[in-house]
Amino acid sequence: MTSRTHLRPHLRPHLRRGAALSGALGLLALAGATPAMAAGTIGSSGHVDVVNTETVQVYMSPEAKIESQRVYEQLAMTGHGSVDLLNPVSTRGLRNLDGFAHISTKGGDQVVRTTVDGTKKTRTVSTYTKKLPLDVAVHYSLDGKTVRPGDVVGRSGKLQVTFTVTNRTGRTEKVQIADGNGGTVTREVNVVMPIVGSVDTTLPSSFTNIRSQAANMAGDGEGGTQLSFTMTLFKPVGSTTSTFGYTADVKNGVVPRVEISALPVNPLESPTFKSASTSYQGGADSGAELTDGAVKIDAHLLQLRDGSAQLLAGLIKLRDGASRLDDGLSDDAAPGAEKLAAGALTLKTGLGQLDTGSGKVAAGAVALRAGLGKLDTGARKLAAGSSDLASGTASLADGTGSALAGSTQLTAGLKQISGGLGQLNDAQSGLPSANDAIAQLKAGIDQLIAGMGDNASPTTILGGLSSLNGALGQLKTGAQNLQGGLSQAAGGIGTARGGVDQVKSSLSGAAGSIDPSGIDALSGGVTVLKGYCNGDPTCVGYATNVLGGLSAAKGNLADLKSGLTTAVSALGQVSGGLDSAQTALASGGALNSGAAQIAGGLAQAITGVGSLQTGAGTVKGGLGQVRSGLNELAEGVEAAVSGIAQLQSGAGSAYSGSSDLTAGLGKLDTGANQLDDGAGRLETGAAQLADGATTASDGSVALSDGATKVADGAETASDGSRKISAGATKLSGGLTAAATGSSKLADGLKTAAGSAPALPEGATKLSNEGTKKLVGKGESTAQTYGENVAVMKAGARLASTEDMAYGAPKGAQGLTAYSYVIQGDDGQNGRNLARALTGAGVLLAGGGVVLLRRRLV
């Protein structure tokens, strides 16, 4: 009879014990053999490989109270030669499992001296004397009420069983981790021996409607249901405590037997957990890269702020200078030029009349000269007409006196005009000095344009924005690397129960770090910028579009936070087992989605920087337009200076001609007076006629010469006045155009100076509320992942040096596994005791009969 159902009851405990040991040894096989650093030594001749396995077996009551604990030692020796070794063991209750031979010990070590030709094994068992690495607790409730295991036996209802397994190997260590900003910080962390394991139980067919969120379930081929739970009892991959269980509807209930298998692992060497360590290191590196990129962005923003402040100061100075230029041209220069043009026109008309009159004077002087030639022959007639002559010469004297006075005033006026035009044309204080002011304005504009720079110049505004854009691109790449690292971590911890808690913690932190109120701060900044648009539809349109984009981004952040909160709530219901690993993998996808959201946010940041670049380009274009306006203004001033030069030349010629005219009129006045005297003398005496005629002849010659000079001077003055009039007209037109251009320049610079303060304010706000917070997030990420890496490395050191319960012979390979058995309760123990007592009673009764019979016999 080999069927399990026909085995005798007293054989089943031994078979179950063998099954428990077999499960523990199976875990050892999965772990692989690793060298153990122990106090024992191996001495041999030939070549013999030694593998030492320790299996600690703990039997517990249904309430998880320890009843016994043993350690099974096996030395497997393979090769050819003699062996002399010391194997550290527990010597309390030490027994030989291969026979009845004595086990030799020395100072707490098993002494083995033997010869190996192929394979040889030695097996021992003894009492386990050290502290167990795991605490196990179990809780039973029936129909919602806490019960003892024995209370379940024979009853029916809804049974709930909950197991809690805790890793008790922890100790506090100090570790140094990168702070994400080029330095290190020291943290105190709890380091435990990395332990993984499984919990297995088989529920009988009387258990129905079985439910468990963490177990793998399968039939056992005999109507029962097998449940298997997996545990990862170390951080950060798992947790030091694992809680799981099942519910079932039971009839005629029993407490099923439970077997727990566990063993230490090295997370840096185990293929299952090695990728998790790599991913955590990748997360720490990505956090450091994030911090570095954010620091560079913040530095560029501060450069942008300082450059914007300098731009604002330059614009204010330029605005004030343009306003003063506009006032001078509009209030003084342009009206003065108009008056100058009107005076020049009047001068031109008067000089034309003078030219005509002087021509007539010259013709009269010629006629006078001819008449005086006949004076000698008409002396008699002169005597008769001397009275008329005296009257005429008196009028002539008066006329020449008036002409002389007018010519003198004309000369003085032309002198003032020439002097005024000279002052206006003066290179230091006149209109040409405006060219220097305009040149200074153009130089200032050129400096502003140079400050704006281009994308290839990192020290300029456009270059700084380009560098900012590149740094954001690097930040986006770092976020994408972080996303890839999370995907690797999800693949690495797919089979680990503790991955669920880690993913849940990561998602919870991600949801907590999302703050849509930051979008409100950015929207406030854009609203302030919109106020500087002064009703410009294009500017208002841009600001409105940006506000719309920020509103949409805020909604997306709220949706993301809601999705993360939902994911965290769902993960809170998942624990342990292969199903827990599958759920952790799905939650890893949520992490990847969060990383993708970060990359998307950085892409939006890159778009925002692009908008800043476009705005800076627009400012540079506006400065170019101002530069063109200054060029037009300079051309107008050049034209005005040229006209003034022409006016000055004409005024000089007019002044010279007027001076000649005055000299001629002086001579004419002298001759007229002499003529008047001669006429008087002619009138008083004929004796003086010859002298008077001679004097008159001489005076007529002077009169003719003077009249000719007057005519020539008047003609020259007329030509000069025409030039003055033309130059004054050009000057008036040029100054009017210059006044119009300066007004436009002043208005444009006022607008630019009014809008420029938004640039340093926006850069400062973005630095304080954006990049500095991003630096903090990067440092936090680097330190969190760095601490995880440090904890895994510290656990790996424990697994490499302290993974065995007692240790292995020096140079041997050693493995340790732990097997906990929570015994079941089906009521048979009580019945077996009753049967034993009944049997004892029968034996005693039989013995009494025998004794009585003997006595009777």
List keywords for this structure.
Immunoglobulin-like, eleven-stranded mixed β-sheet, 13 helices, 63% helix, disordered C terminus
Can I get a quick summary?
The chain is an alpha+beta fold. It has 13 helices and 18 strands. The protein has helices at about 10-30, 150, 270-375, 380-425, 435-450, 460-490, 500-515, 515-530, 535-570, 575-685, 690-755, 760-800, 830-855, and strands at about 35, 40-60, 65-90, 95, 105, 110-125, 135-140, 145, 155-165, 170-180, 185-190, 195-205, 205-210, 215-220, 225-230, 240-250, 260-265, 815-820.
Task: Walk me through what this model shows.
With 857 residues, the protein is an alpha+beta fold. The protein folds into three domains: 4-130 and 805-831, Immunoglobulin-like, CATH 2.60.40; 274-310 and 456-631 and 763-789; 321-444 and 635-755, no CATH class. It has helices spanning 12-31, 149-152, 271-373, 379-424, 433-452, 461-492, 499-513, 517-531, 537-571, 577-684, 689-755, 758-801, 828-856, and strands at 34-35, 42-60, 66-88, 95-96, 105-106, 109-127, 134-142, 145-147, 157-167, 171-178, 184-191, 195-203, 207-211, 216-219, 225-232, 241-250, 258-264, 813-822. α4 runs antiparallel to α10 and α8 runs antiparallel to α9 (537-571). Keywords: Signal. It comes from Nocardioides mangrovicus. Residues 1-38 form the signal peptide. This is Gram-positive cocci surface proteins LPxTG domain-containing protein.
Q: Oligomerization state of this entry?
A: single chain
Approximately how much beta-strand content do the residues carry? Answer: 15-25%
User: So what's the overall shape?
Assistant: rod-shaped
Number of strands: 18
Major beta-sheet overview:
11 strands, mixed
Helix content: 55-70%
Beginning-to-end CA distance, first to last residue: 46 Å
Helix-strand makeup class: alpha+beta
Tally of structural domains: 3
* Count, helices: 13
Give the mean pLDDT. 76
Q: State Rg.
A: 59 Å
Low-confidence stretches: 1-18, 29-41, 837-857
Signal peptide: 1-38
Protein name: Gram-positive cocci surface proteins LPxTG domain-containing protein
Keywords: Signal
InterPro entries: xxxLxxG_rpt
